[in-house]
Design a protein that fits this description.
With 253 residues, the chain is an alpha+beta fold. It is built from nine helices and ten strands. The radius of gyration is 21 Å and the shape is globular.
Length: 253
């Protein structure tokens, strides 16, 4: 019995180490931290759409065109792009199968980005899906664009690599960076994007669409210009307090 218990303990420890290794090396694309995340206003709008098991990030087309200008040539003048990241074989398949799903989890051959061009309001375009809006700072937008640029693979001429046509009428698959697996899912990619945009989400275990949408529902930020600041009476040895949008910030004077 002692030998059996030792074998079970060894197997259990190996499983734990394997899971920790997957978490630690969840892989590309990597989060891009904002240079300055101490923002007081968030003028830049973005959306997240949940299509059941999968989420996509929706950004103004002009923002993504700045770091991937080939998209403007491919899609023309549009208002928004939805970007989704996923397994190269499963995501592009006309019909998902159990075999393709298992291959994506345990033996992915690479990743793709699915770009959908949207003319008009994303909530109207994806009327059958849950779509949540939030807003980010200028610093958050800058790091988000860097994250999105780094999610695309590029050829030797530094151009995007188009693959098959996408799922929707005006959409396209592109070769992406990274490799899909159990701890690096499409929903984790969306969480990484939100983290890069300056939100306080931890992408590590955001592996399902529901986990991403629950976070955003509770933490989304309204758009708007800089809120009015109210200077309060000095106290505590000359300290001055400023009150902004339900938060109090301390500035030593």
């Amino acid at each position: 019995m002692t030998g059996c218990n030792a074998d079970k303990s060894l197997i259990r420890n190996c499983i734990v180490l394997f899971a920790l290794a997957l978490i630690a090396c969840s892989g590309k694309p990597y989060v891009v931290e904002p240079e300055n995340n101490a923002a007081f206003f968030y003028p830049n709008r973005l959306f997240v759409a949940s299509h059941g098991w999968h989420t996509g990030l929706i950004v103004p087309a002009r923002n993504l065109n700045e770091v991937a200008p080939e998209l403007e040539g491919r899609f023309g003048p549009v208002h928004y792009y939805e970007i989704g990241w996923g397994d190269k074989a499963f995501y592009q398949a006309r019909e998902g199968t159990t075999g393709l799903a298992l291959q994506a989890i345990f033996g992915s051959e690479g990743a793709v980005l699915h770009v959908v061009a949207i003319a008009g309001d994303p909530r109207d375009y994806f009327s059958g899906s849950e779509v949540l809006e939030t807003c980010v700072s200028e610093s958050g937008l800058k790091s988000l664009k860097a994250f999105l640029a780094g999610s695309f693979s590029r050829d030797s001429a530094d151009r995007l690599i188009p693959l098959s046509r996408g799922i929707y009428r005006n959409s396209q698959f592109y070769l992406g960076e990274g490799r899909y697996h159990l701890m690096n899912t499409s929903n984790k990619w969306t969480a990484k994007a939100l983290k890069s945009a300056g939100m306080g989400i931890s992408p590590t275990f955001r592996l399902t669409a529901g986990s991403v949408m629950r976070y955003l529902e509770s933490n989304r930020r309204p758009c708007g210009a800089a809120p009015a600041m109210q200077t309060l009476k000095p106290r505590n040895g000359g300290a001055i307090l400023f009150e902004t949008t339900g938060q109090i910030h301390r500035k030593l004077g």
